[in-house]
Amino acid sequence: MLLEGGSFAMGADDPWAYPEDGEGPVRETHAGSFWIDTCTVSNASFAQFVEATGYVSEAERFGWSFVFAGLLPDDFPPTQAVAQAPWWRKVESADWRRPEGPQSDLEGRLDHPVVHTSWNDAVAYCAWAGKRLPTEAEWEFAARGGLAGKVFPWGDELEPNGEHFMNVWQGGFPGANTVADGFYGTCPVDAFPANEFGLHNTTGNVWEWAADWFHPSFRERDSSGDPTGPPRGTNKVQKGGSYLCHHSYCRRYRIAARHGNTPDSSTGNVGFRCVRDT
């Protein structure tokens, strides 16, 4: 979709926000015109990239990636857990082709978002496709779909009239997911209704990499024309939340929410979408 850009209120002063994420204060920001993919990059598209270039992802080179424990079979061998988040397991041979490790594959998931892709992997794909990653401001402008100051791409209610508009955790995290929204794990890249700009799944499903370096202080980031974030850092911005987000644990399934991770990190709930200059 071609977006003409414009001024918008970026960030949030939200009681659900984590202070360390630096979502606020809300400030008037401007995004220029740009093209943006309506969906995140799918497994099928990433496979075309790999076939054309021979690219080897960072998870493949490292030999492992982080997988949500609830997606592993009951008889899966013991794995190392993250100390403060034991639902994340270090799984040998987990990568974009084998999202849950060596016993898994992409059958039935070619239209799902590619995961276990680092920021560096995403940049490599974008270069091949003649595109780039969106800045955080571009991403947020597009995700809002022209709705000013709303929590979600469709409004302020999580499930208006009981209807589900994104793929997030349903039930008690991390032990029980009722799958009320229809999905356990990822869903197809266009599974839920698009926002007013035609973009699918900007919240929920998978986190999306942005081009910017992450900094917890919003005030230190330029918010004038087409801000690009701080000039350096250790983590890159991720936006949108994922299928694991739930208000009891991760309230980052809102448009303004943000998170940071190192450029070489990969997990089973992170993907990306691309933009292109006009």
CATH-scheme architecture = Alpha-Beta Complex
The CATH superfamily name is paralog of FGE (formylglycine-generating enzyme)
Strand content: 15-25%
- The secondary-structure element order is EEEEHHEEEHHEEEEEEE
Strand order of the largest sheet: 12-11-10-13
Task: Return the average pLDDT rounded to an integer.
Answer: 94
The global form is globular
CATH fold node name: paralog of FGE (formylglycine-generating enzyme)
Q: How would you characterize the overall build of this protein?
A:
The mean pLDDT is 94. This protein has helices at residues 43-53, 58-62, 119-129, 136-144; strands at 2-3, 6-10, 27-31, 34-36, 64-68, 80-82, 85-92, 171-172, 176-177, 207-213, 236-239, 258-261, 270-271, 275-277. By secondary structure, it is of the alpha+beta class. It has a 4-stranded mixed sheet with strand order 12-11-10-13. The protein has a single domain, classed as paralog of FGE (formylglycine-generating enzyme) (Alpha-Beta Complex), CATH 3.90.1580.10. Helix content is 13%, strand content 20%. The radius of gyration is 18 Å and the shape is globular.
Question: Can you summarize this structure?
Answer:
This protein has 278 residues and is α+β, with helices and mostly antiparallel strands. The protein has four helices and 14 strands.
